[in-house]
Specification:
- This protein has 100 residues and is mainly α.
- It contains 3 helices and 2 strands, in the order E-E-H-H-H.
């Protein structure tokens, strides 16, 4: 499905092929990288039930195009920082960061 129409207006969608969809994604990435640089692309990777396999493949793709790399997601570091500031350093929130 592809949205058509201006963002401000109510848009409709129409069916497109997988090839058209992939071409649109590739062209959008290329235009964004050419205009703003590769670090303007931020890969928001969420690892849910499908586990680390898809996340590791996604990270590889985004690293290959030079996208901005995130450090362990957005939610986990914020949660850890909030717990640590409220409860101190407890066993439940110890991280492996910096471990040898």
């Amino acid at each position: 499905m592809k949205r058509v129409g201006k963002k401000e207006l109510r848009r409709s969608v129409h069916c497109i092929s997988w090839d058209e969809a992939l071409d649109a994604i590739v062209n959008n990435f290329k235009e964004t990288i050419d205009t703003y640089g590769s670090e303007s692309i931020f890969a928001l990777l969420l690892c849910r039930n499908n586990g680390g396999y898809s996340e590791s493949r996604s990270r590889l793709f985004f690293r290959c195009i030079g996208a901005t790399d995130q450090d362990r997601g957005i939610c986990s570091p914020a949660k850890t920082s909030g717990f640590r500031s409220a409860y101190g350093d407890t066993l439940a929130i110890k991280t492996t960061r910096g471990a040898t």
